């Protein structure tokens, strides 16, 4: 009797149980009845889940229809997608470059647009992380329609993707526009395997490839394959090898990127590629690493193109030049040859940078200054100039400092500005030393409209960017705004308020940025006095109508508590 009372239910519960209409069987045990109820509960839970999914689907469709993005014109939305995919710049995304598939998962309207626009499928980037299957590779080539495809290859070390890409190239050679390989250390070791090299060469050389315009392969310096014989190449990136192979067809190149190449060969290539429009060179002290101490060492004589040259070389097509080099004496010497003999009448962008502080054993500073002047004045169309101020000029032009030893330099801020063509619209200067702040004050004085010299300096200047240095301790910070703040404000006022009646030809300054690295309002290493000085300068900048940022955010000043915090 006691056991029976365990299953006894009150009358109210019995009535509710009957209303559930649960099927029961005669002579069934309580466990069997429980199992039957569990079965019914599972069925009900599944139905609830199904209805919730259906509800979420319809709610998503309603949200899509109500979304502000859904009312954007198709052409505007397409432009946004093309910008996200870097279609116009023709730059490949990172190793996970399957953005069209990601965008297509956002909503129905996006999916329709993505899958019906071939241009959005022309810049895939495959990697080992994506498990790049042959099906994924073929999907991009098929969806791109008749448009050529630029392929990115990131550390793919198995053979099936290479085989599939090879099949596609053999079937439709016109589809491949660019092939760019990126290998990390692990991937580069596998790339060196002969079989993988051969497959890639066969893939690129299997057809005429009439639309192939670019090949970028980062290698270890022992890449001697003739994969780059293709005459259709227009853009070439080469890194890690002292010389360019003689079989590379550079006659038709319009864009050339060279890294870790001997500087004399860089100059030779510049003269032998008459159609070049973009030339990007980064030269490190590779000659030092090779144990070469003189330009007369065997095998490294002065380039025959410059050894006995007396006439200037005019390159009328070159519009973009980036020349970055370590100030090793030999690198500096070849830079001297570049500036002395090469003239660039159509150049619009110049990034000229030297890293380090060293005198040249072969080129005197006075001669270097002279050819620098001749080099710059030969660019009447120069619009954007970026310069690394590795040698720190003081206002009197006494010299630059290197380990507390002063060398005669003979260059001043005034002569630096006088070198620049009046056509310059964008000026970007990277400073190396703290002592550059003395030059900055003088620089701002000269750029001021109506300066004491009565000169008009860079009348077309629209953008001015100045970067400090972050490799300084607290006692020797990169740039101290307080030192040249007065000159800075006067220059900005004169430039951004528009030209006065006397100087109508001067363009209004539209953009100004000075990034003072390792200089912060919230730096706990500052003394109380130093913190107050920083705050005063920052508040003055804001008072001038300028924007002051620290760590990517705008500082807020709490007057009541005399504290500074960063707004989100």
Automatic annotation (TrEMBL):
Q: Which InterPro entries match?
A: F-box_dom
Known Pfam families for this protein? F-box-like
Span of domain F-box: 70-126
Taxonomy, superkingdom:
Eukaryota
UniProt-recorded name of the protein: F-box domain-containing protein
Q: Which organism is it from?
A: Leucocoprinus birnbaumii
